[in-house]
Structure formats: structure tokens, C-alpha cells
Amino acid sequence: MESIVIVGAGHAGVQAAEALRVSGFKGSITLLGDETYGPYHRPPLSKAWLAGEMNSEQLVMRAPEILARKAIELRTGTAVNRIDRAAKLVKLSDGSALSYTGLVLATGATPRSLSLPGSDAQGVFTLRSRDDASAIAAHMAVCGEKQLPVIVIGGGFIGLEVAATACKKGLSVTVLEAAPRLLGRVLAPVLSEWYAQLHRGHGVRLVFDARVAAIEADVQGGISGVRMANGTLYPAGLVLVGIGVVANDQLARAAGLACDRGIVVDSCGRTNDPLIVAAGDCTVRRLTDGSLIRLESVQNANEQGKSAAATLMGIDKPFTATPWFWSDQFDRKLQMAGLSMGADQWAVRGEMAAGTFSVYHFKGGQLLAVDSVNASKDHLQARKLLEASVSPTQQQAADVSFDLTGLLSH
To answer: Any idea which architecture 331-408 has in CATH?
Structure first.
């Protein structure tokens, strides 16, 4: 009988499993998760879950009984040690093995850690899992009781979302960012500055060009502060390290699959082994021009999961949709469509001061991406424009009286 094993029970793994059943796969499907929980939503961890505004039931993505009704066997707390491609076996940490006729790698990513003195002290956290978020929330409660500050190292999305949540809890927050501005790799300078003002307006202290030298501990082994290269000490009761993630491609590498800062796949999730596909944050996609791109988003995980499942069914279903992302900070929702790398011109539509606007990114006059703040209509419109490869001019994008939707009918 055909048997598909899926390593990783996050968004990509679940989507792959369900897509296989929808496509008519009749064999066995085993979904392996190394956490003790069943599949759950990760985006709320830095926001609603951390803020205590969400309960365990609301965090569940697919209840085990739902998966069971689809004849998908979920095994939690199950780690995979090795893939034996010759024998078509997945070796588990308990010494047992599973045979496969098709294998999906949806192993996700791991937060980067600091390699500095004191970085392993009690009170230093990264955020990726439900347990991480719960531990951070408990430590934040202690900081609130003792009036201890929170230090966030890294001004990316995770760092800023945690900073906003901590600030809403009434904690004193400082963000230490090594770059000269927030979210410098993904946002236009004008939007980086707007987010800096948003956080400062809520009392968050921002330090740019920050060089962290060490995390200092007290006599009990907990942290007391973050020491900078220039000698400045920022007192802290909690440190959140948000400096990006590393793809979990160790299993794939050890099995001899092509990897380059992630498992290399094509638009259909294929690896260099015809029986193995990969999806989600563990992957890096090779584009038609030979370049590689890594996307870390729920949309990417879901769509790659579907594409990978189709490949195992012998169906070509490339994931080529316009990428989109989102981030909630304070009462502002950022929705991003497209990829803005390489943009050389920008246009702002709406009033930034009012907090409802969009930034349109152009390269050589061609629309690359649109970042919308509290402007969902703009975001949906932008996705349609990008999908259709229709580009307004900068003047049209900046003119709120101009109907951009009308360009789609031309």
C-alpha cells in the first residue's frame, strides 16, 4: 500500500496532508510533530496568545479528531533522527522506523540565537513555539510585578510585535536594532520611520546601530541587563532575541538532498529526490532565472504544502501566486503584497498621519509591492494588480481620487 510520511505538523504539513486526501490519495498518511501539541496557529503567539487574549482552544489549527476523520494519523512528540533514502525509511528517535512511498519535509525553522556571554541566562528567550510564548508571558507577568524592563534585541516583525504586546501590558520596553532603521530589509524608509514613530508614541525606546556585547546576570542566575559594546547597560528583567530564523534543513542535508540555507525546491515543491518534496519555512525556492528565494509566511507554507501534495500525486501545481504577509502592532495592521527588494521609487496613497495609507514600491516604473496600514481594501486591490502584472504610475498610485481598479479592466 502507498504510504506518505509528513515530517512537521505545522501549517505546511497539515495543508499537504489534507490536500492529499482532497486529491484522492487512498494510502496511509502519517503526520509527525515533534511538539506535544497537535497543529496550532503560530501567528498569534507574539500577539493575542502572548497578551492573554486567546485560549488554548482558539489556538488549535486542526483538532486530532478532525485529522482522524480524514484518515490522517497524527503522532505528536515524535522526532525524526534520520532519512534512509535507499531503504525509503524514516528513522524515529524512539528507535522505530516508518516506510514511505512519498515523503514531505515540512520541518520549519529555528530562531537564531545570540553567541554572546550570558545569552543562555535565565530570562533570555526566543519565540517560535507555543511553549516559548507561554514562558515569555509568565516571565512578563513577573516583570510587571517587579517593575522590570523588557529588552527586545532585533527590530524585525517578531521583535516589534512582542515589543507592542509588552508595552500594552504596561511594561517598559527598549528595542535594540543593529541596523540604522526598523525592518530595513523589507520596508521603505518612509514606512520604517512611520513605525519608529508609532512605537515611540506608545513609549517604546528605540536604539539603532546597537552593538550588544553581553547579557549580564545577577547572583541568582537571572538576567540584570544588556551590556552594549560602548559600555552602556540597559537594565532588563526579560530579553527577547528576535534576529531571524534558520531553516531546519539538517535532516535533508544528512540525507544528501540539495540545500542552500534551506531545502532547495522548485515551484512544485520538488527536491532532487523524486520521492521527497518539501514545503514551508524549511525551504528555499529556485526561480526560473536560477536565483533562490526564501519566504517565511503562512501563505507560503499553505500554498507550498498544496503544491508538494500535488507533486506526490503526479500533478503539476506550481505555487506562483503573489506573496503576501501581515503584522499586527498596537492597533495597526500591516498587510504586504509582493516583494519590494530592489525598489528604487515609492508612492504613498492616503494620509500617513491618519494611520490609514499604503506605500507602493516601484522599480523602473513597474509596481513591485504594496504595503498597506489599516487599509485592507488597498491590500486586496494590490494583490489583484500584482497578479495581473498591471502597474499604475507613481502619480496614479499617489492620487486617492484615481480608481486603480479601473486599470484591471483595460
So the answer is: 2-Layer Sandwich (3.30)
